Amino acid sequence: MIIKLLASILILCTQSVALLVSVWYNPRSVARCTKQNYFTLSCSFNSPTNLDRREVFHSITNASIYALTSAISITPSLAISPEEAASSYDKFASTYDNLDDGSISGMLGINEARIKIIGLAKGRVLEIGVGTGLNLEKYTFASSPLAMDGVTSLTLLDISVGMLAEAKKKVASMNVPKYVKFDFIHADATSSEMTDLFGKETFDTVVDTFSLCVMGRVGALSCLQQMRNVVKDEGKVLLIENAKSSNSLIGLYQDLTSEKAAEFGGKGCVSNQDVRSFIMQTVALEIVNEEEYASGLFRSFVCVKTNE
Ligand SMILES: C[S@@+](CC[C@H](N)C(=O)[O-])C[C@H]1O[C@@H](n2cnc3c(N)ncnc32)[C@H](O)[C@@H]1O
Fold it and tell me: Which of 30, 202, 246, 272 could form a disulfide with 109 if both were Cys (CB 3.0 to 4.6 A apart)?
């Protein structure tokens, strides 16, 4: 337990610093930050944002403490099975947003990436691994039941009942046109049960953000196939995923630590997967746009289903 604790502290502290440094110093990051004085870090995103350095360190400390307590109570192993993901995320559900929707995600450009990618969703939409529903507020809903200027129905799928329950609460508090239909589905997105459940070529758009990293290589490849099956021809598959950084130092650091980070508090999420190559291995799925955030630690992909 002591070794686990020390390893968690080391990994989480260095990981937090690496994330911070990647945003701070890398000119290719979406977020560009300059030091004004000791306490003020001025970060330019699409719209200018000033972050107080105390707030940044406060967030990092909070995130580390939160992840540490999670690490002590839950220790998912690398490429956790769907069953393990379900029980782990059930336990994370009520506190998930504290870590994954804080100012760090703003600094890294995750919020901006979510707004950009989710804004492209149209028509009948399936979101897999919806979690607590951090994308929900970013959807644009259609102006009428048949209009294709936004989302006409939203099917939210997750393997964790606890996470789905949190997403349900968010939907209940949202102001959504009455004609937009919501469905909540408890299912495994890596299994062919997903295609059986919905049928082939059912959705105009299929969305995933940060779920493939939990599924491991085999699970992620299988999930992409299911997503490809259920999306219509010419329909879109929209992804934001953790990836190996394009900065070689950070990439090396990820290679050395991602397995342990996934095990100790990373919620089973392996951060250095090569998602682009997974997409390229998926028949009839073509990347039409890719953007990198925070030195490539996160990438968004817009993919189109082509005729098989
Ligand atoms: C890191 S969270 C991401 C949640 C959300 N998409 C977001 O962007 O915040 C990963 C989510 O994937 C779900 N998940 C993991 N394995 C899954 C599987 N095999 N099928 C469906 N959902 C899965 C987890 O329960 C969890 O809600």
Answer: 30
